[in-house]
Each structure stands twice: as C-alpha cells, then as structure tokens.
Amino acid sequence: MQNWDDLRILLAVADAGSIRGAGTALALNHATVSRRLKDFENRIGARLMARVGSGRYMATPAGKDLLTVARGMRDELGVVERRVTGRDAALTGTVRLTFSETIADLLAPALAAFGRAYPEIHLMLAESNRQAAVGGREADVAVRFTAAPPDDLVGRRMASVAVAPWASKHCAREIERRGGMPAARWIVPAPQFANMPNAQWIAANVPPENIGMTADTFHIAQRMVASDYGVCVLPNFIGAAEPKLVRVGSNIPEAAMPLWVLTHNDLRETARIRALMDTLYTTIDENRAHLES
Predict the structure, then answer these.
(1) Domain range for residue 246?
(2) 155 has which bridge partners?
(3) I need a surface site. Which of 1, 22, 48, 125 has the fewest CB within 10 A?
(4) What are phi and psi of 209, to 5 degrees?
C-alpha cells in the first residue's frame, strides 16, 4: 500500500465507476487498469472494488476504508503541488484547461494563437462538461457554466449566456398543430446539473410527464432537437448555429447560464496561468454580445 500509483488506480476506478472510464481518465488501456487493480488487491489480500452491473464497479467496505485514506493523500499532494506551481514565474510548463464543448468553436482560434505566442507552454485541453477538480490533478483552469463556483476557486464571471426554448422546424409545426407548448416533449439537463438556472426553470415550468430525455451536454441536446425529437432550453448562440432549429418561445432571463473562467487560488500568481486566463478573459469579453444576445 506504499505505492501511490496503486492508490491512483483505485481512486480512478471509484471516481469513474468503471474500468474503462478510469482508463480514459488516466490515459491507460482499460486492460492495464484492470490488471493493476487485481494485482493491488492480491498484494493486500482484500477485494476493493466489486462489479455491480454491466461494466460498473462499486467500492467494497475494505475499498471504502482505503479510499478515505487515498483521497486524503490526493488532497495533500494537490496542496503541495499548487504551492510549488504557484511560485513559478516563467512562461513555460504545462497548463491543463477544461471547457464545455459548447464553447469550443469560440475558444479554438484564441487557444491556437496562445500556443503560437507561447511555444514553451504546453496546453493540455480537455473538452468536458464534468466538474473537473480545478487545482487538483485534473485541471489548472476551467471555463465553466456554474451557478456558484467553489470557495477555493478564483476568476471572473464573464457572461450570462442567453437561453430560450428551441425545436426543429418540423417539431415546431407539430407543436402548433397539437395546441401549443403543453403538448411538447422535452429534452432536459442530466441530474448532475439540477442546480443550474436552466434546469431549475424546467423543474418549475415543465410537467414531468412531458420530459422524454435527459442529456449531459448541450451538443447532444442540440442534435436530438435537430433530429425532430422535441424541445430543449438551449443557449441562443447554439440554437441559432443549427439551420434546422427555430425558437419556440421568448428568452428566459431567469434561466440564463453564468459562464466563468476559474483557477485555484494557489495558482493565480503562476505566470503561465495568468497568461492563459488573460487570453480567455479577452476572448470571451469580445464575444459577450454574441453569448448574451
């Protein structure tokens, strides 16, 4: 149990809930993850993760005890790493950036220009809606839709992204023919986004029996709407980018999506972090009118 890599494998499987997901997070083949977990279990003489379904894993009582220790070690390592990194004044090294696929097209040109301007900074880009641990071992900077950033993160609220109900042109005609929005089927955010303004508006205004699908990214929701499934509250700049879609209602101000650029407080004085965040601030600010229209 003195090998941190063993604990890192265990943590990844527990966090992802699957061998394959852990492999993706660790950039390892899933067979390697499975073998190393089994080797670890054999060495300590205890079963740590139990298979509970098709590819899903859950910690055993022994695994839960060990995970408590492992998570404490990971947190301590993260604190040390952030403090060391925070003293770095050189425009060199690695910066891990995570962002939603929703704004990938908006950020891509600026990130490419940043890479050309700072060739000694290596950007590691992760396109994900998952709430990565900023300042830990997953991300240094995040561009994130969030209603309330964690207290240990710092940055700026850059925009309140305007949203409205969108449907395909075909579905819009069908909704009108059947008597309007009470007859609409809805695609709604996945449960992990229940605290977001768009999800809260849906919970207050859409009958549960009208909800047919959940989606954990706006991209998936947009594609299902474009495939004539139903209605979804989308950022207007996402809906307007798909020619098959039309708005089927007015903007919903109370459901606007807060967009933040965030880093951990311990990293804010690191030169490469500051350089990237300044680029993100400028890029999003230049596009604010488009995002909030």
Answers:
(1) 163-255
(2) 262
(3) 1
(4) -70, -15
Q: Cα–Cα distance between 181 and 270 in angstroms, integer?
A: 51
> CB of 161 within 8 A of CB of 259?
yes
Q: What is the DSSP letter of 280?
A: H
Query: Given this model, what pLDDT does residue 55 score?
Result: 83
For the ranges 43-52, 242-251, 265-274, the maximum mean pLDDT occurs at 242-251
Of 267, 244, 291, the residue nearest 100 (C-alpha): 291
Pick the last residue of a domain from 85, 119, 135: 85
| Contacts of 74 by beta carbon, 8 Å cutoff, 6+ apart | 7, 8, 11, 136, 137
Q: Mark whether 10 and 153 lie in a shared domain.
A: no
DSSP state of 254: G
Please compute the mean of the pLDDT values over residues 274-282 and round it to a whole number. Answer: 95
139 and 249 part of one domain: no
- Number of domains into which the chain is organized: 3
**Domain end call among 85, 107, 132:** 85
Nearest-CA neighbor of 215 among 183, 187, 255, 243? 187
Structure tokens at 127: 């396109």
Query: Are 72 and 94 in the same domain?
Result: no
Nearest 5°: phi and psi at 160?
-110, 100
Sort residue 45 into left (φ over 0), alpha (ψ -120 to 50) or beta.
left
